[in-house]
Amino acid sequence: MALAKVGRKLKRTGKDAYKFEFTALCEKLALQVKPEVKKWLPHKLLVSFSRSHRRVETSTVFFKSVIESGREGDAQWTPPSELTLLVTLYRAPDSAKFDEKEYKFEIMNVSKEGDTKLLAVFYCDMAEYVKEDESESALSMTFKPSSVKIANATLEMTIKSRFVKKGKAGDDDMMSTASRLSQGNIRDLDEDLDEQDRVEPEKPKISKADDKKMKKTLEHLATEDGQDPSAKKSAVADWLGVSPSDSAGDDVDAMLKADSRFADAVLFDTGGQPVQVERLLKAAVIGVYFSAEWCPPCRDFMPKLKEYYNVLKEKGASFELLWVSSDKNEQAMQRYARSMEMPWPMLEYNHPLGNELRDSFEVNSIPTLCFVDAIGNKIDNQGRAAVEKAVETNTAWSSYNLALSKVSSSVMLAGAKPLNAPAGHTADGQVGHRAMVVSWRPCMIPI
């Protein structure tokens, strides 16, 4: 599972790192709504500039119709709205071309109620807009509609790049803040926080023969009958020429964990304090819970979910929950988390991972609970039913064991063991020789 991450990092071995400051000056946004859309028009618009969880946004401006039908209009920033990010690019010492580094621009509509919806997106390779001094490019970007309501969208803007510094791999002043800090939340620091922008220490050059051998090893470790999890770390460490037990071995752990779709998640507790993503990555089974303050069935389900969670934690299960809010604004999310006294971490409001998880698990109503492994592979998207039954029959341990049994051995974490059945229960969750059957009807609210 870690081969792709390891390969990408090794591709940067021996390359020079260049840090640039990019400023996007957003001037005018033209938008056309499809003719068949009769009862909707954009309200306020904004543009975001992002990669992973690093994101900046323009101020909002009103959409103004420019033709009588109202289906076509624009939004203008006077003066132009500035979006600034620091970006690290890489290239080989003997090359004049930087490696590709893709960022995205998104057009968002902000409704009268404060809801934010994606309308269109444009992917941009930042390597195309740099020189080793200062450069400026006037652009007219044609966006790809993300909403069925939008016919086309164009943004007139200027991208400026300013060279900041050049360094070698391993130089402290060239590494991203994310790679230097191991604790706390760093979302507000003026630095490129993308994990992929981290300048890695130099690694020994790998011959084609060694590369092929390592690929076969990793493929074997990814199979169900592969070696135990510690073997994967040892194999990668040996390939990179480090010891798994010394400080360099920590980088191997980071490489393996970076394969997780949760690696770039920004987490908080109910008090708004940052939570390290390690809390998720250390769990063999993760419950991803989608709910909102405005949803009555969500409030009804919460006591059962908390009971299920607390029972597993008390029994030492390798389990964690992640709450993904479907609330209409961040204030509602925080208010709901505090009022429910959620003991598990919550994902940052509007974090890109939220929509990625909704799409991946096909979440179209709430409350929804999905069980996944530490990498993010789906185990069961009917977790709510499992929790309801487990709480009614006092068999949370059995539900957890079933989920654990579906976790691939290639991502199973050391120490993750099935829970023992309480006295009077069989291993499959039955009491004596009779299965306890619970009948219930879930109440779901579409989103």
Give me a quick take on this structure.
The protein has 447 residues and is of the alpha+beta class. The protein has eleven helices and 19 strands. Strands 1, 2, 3, 4, 5, 6, 7, 8, 9 and 10 form a ten-stranded antiparallel beta sheet that branches. It has a four-stranded mixed beta sheet with strand order 14-13-17-18.
Topology:
Layout lengths: L2 H8 L5 E18 L10 E8 L2 E4 L3 E2 L1 E2 L6 E20 L10 E9 L5 E10 L8 E12 L4 E19 L8 H4 L27 H14 L7 H12 L6 H11 L9 E2 L5 E2 L2 H4 L3 E7 L4 H19 L4 E7 L4 H11 L5 E2 L4 H9 L4 E2 L1 E6 L4 E3 L2 H11 L2 H10 L39 E2 L1
Parallel strand pairs: 13-14
Antiparallel strand pairs: 1-6, 1-10, 2-3, 2-4, 2-7, 5-6, 7-8, 8-9, 9-10, 11-12, 11-15, 13-17, 16-19, 17-18
Description:
The protein is globular and about 70 Å long. α10 runs antiparallel to α11. Helices cover 25% and strands 31% of the residues. The protein has eleven helices and 19 strands. β9 and β10 (150-168) form a beta hairpin. The model is unreliable at 1-7, 175-227, 239-244, 246-256 and 426-442 (pLDDT under 50). The longest helix has 19 residues, at 296-314. The chain is of the alpha+beta class and 447 residues long. Strands 1, 2, 3, 4, 5, 6, 7, 8, 9 and 10 form a ten-stranded antiparallel sheet that branches. A four-stranded mixed sheet has the order 14-13-17-18.
